[in-house]
Amino acid sequence: MSLSALHIEALALRRGERLLFERLDLDLAAGEAVALTGANGSGKTSLLRAIAGLIRPEAGAIRFGGAGPDDARAEHLHLLGHQDGLKPHRLARDELAFQAAWAGGARLDAAIDRLALAPLLDLEVRRLSAGQRRRLALARLIAAPRPLWLLDEPMAPLDAAWRARFGEVMAEHLAGGGLILAAVHDPLPIPARDLELAA
Asked: 64 pLDDT band (50/70/90 cuts)?
């Protein structure tokens, strides 16, 4: 993994006329996880999108250790939004293959096995439960390995057993030198520093 750190310095984000936050600092190193907390509308999702390059900051800097910003965003991070971003009329098998290929990965069998997706592959995405759709969306993290995971409420539709299972996946990612920044309302099932966002 070539991306080894995330550095945020004096960051300010605005949505429309409203300043979400300012003077935000964060250092995230390989093997670390940070849980973003705060009230709805505090800027958790916007921060993830800014790191991914989808929102221009009002002020401050976002830097990636070991990679330039363009390479980091194109090849070294995953952004998994609150919405799963899956095509409802595709078969789950085809959607997983598309997501993995788009991210430059080919570890489909590993993803299918780790998240027990085999029984779902011949079903249309629209026929899956919310928890099953989330597992399918999470599969791209395994099928196309990238060091930095930006996760927006990743556990929300999962039951207790699958929260624990995905906790194991996150722990393995960190043990391999990965980085996780997750917007959450509930605690992550792994050790993580908390960063509360407030205006």
From this structure: very high
CB 151 within 8 Å of CB 180: yes
Tokens of 63: 């830097």
Query: Which among 197, 172, 184, 32 has a CA at the least distance from the CA of 111?
Result: 172
CATH topology of domain 19-196: Rossmann fold (3.40.50)
DSSP conformation letters of 112-153: HHHTT-GGGTTSBGGGS-HHHHHHHHHHHHHHS--SEEEEES
128 close to 30: Cβ distance less than 8 angstroms? no
State whether residue 49 is helix, strand or coil.
Answer: helix
CA distance linking residue 148 with residue 31, whole number of Å: 10
Give the rounded distance of the alpha carbon of 33 from its chain centre.
Answer: 11
**Measured between alpha carbons, how far is 197 from 38 in angstroms, rounded to an integer?**
5
Task: Look at residue 199 in the predicted model and tell me its pLDDT.
Answer: 57
